[in-house]
Amino acid sequence: MTKQYRSRHVTISDDDTKTTINELGSSSVSAQIQVPKGASVLEGVWAASGFGITAAAGQHAVYLRLEGDGLPTGEETLVIGGAGNDIATGNRSILPAQYYQLNVPVQETNRITPSAEFTGTATDFGNIEVGITLVFN
């Protein structure tokens, strides 16, 4: 089987709140990603997160959760980003997408639901954008 890719993104506005990743560019799409027919592993994840610090100094970490019956061994959680600022005048981050190599068994045609959340305080960070691409093989 050739590799197959499934992408999503989301804007997170509340800290410590699991947010379903259910957008693809300007379109709302199903949060559930169907494992492609013939796929046996989730080979990896491309992930990026970006934020603007709006009010005060602070730090955060961004987590990606993968859940659903498409993952027969259970939920997977990855740290996909983090940043901080020690001054209260504001800042922004420009972080390149990172590839996280995995070897997670998947159940073809079943579904994976991705979600993201961040630690820290939403008033310090404003919104955080998260983009992911799942790589199946």
- Helix proportion range: under 10%
Discrete helix count = 1
Structural class, please?
mainly beta
Q: Bin the strand percentage.
A: over 45%
Number of domains: 1
Q: Using only CA atoms, what is the Rg?
A: 16 Å
Number of strands: 12
The CATH class designation is Mainly Beta
Estimate the mean pLDDT confidence.
87
For the termini, the CA-CA separation is 6 Å
What is the topology?
Blueprint: E1 4-12, E2 19-20, E3 23-24, E4 27-28, E5 33-34, E6 41-53, E7 58-67, E8 76-85, E9 91-92, E10 98-105, E11 111-118, H1 122-125, E12 128-136
Antiparallel strand pairs: 1-12, 2-11, 3-4, 5-11, 6-9, 6-10, 6-12, 7-8, 7-11
Structural write-up:
- The protein has 137 residues and is mainly β.
- It has a single domain, classed as Sandwich (Jelly Rolls).
- The protein is built from one helix and twelve strands.
- The strands form three sheets. Strands 1, 6, 9, 10 and 12 form a five-stranded antiparallel sheet that branches.
- The longest helix has 4 residues, at 122-125.
- It is elongated, with a radius of gyration of 16 Å.
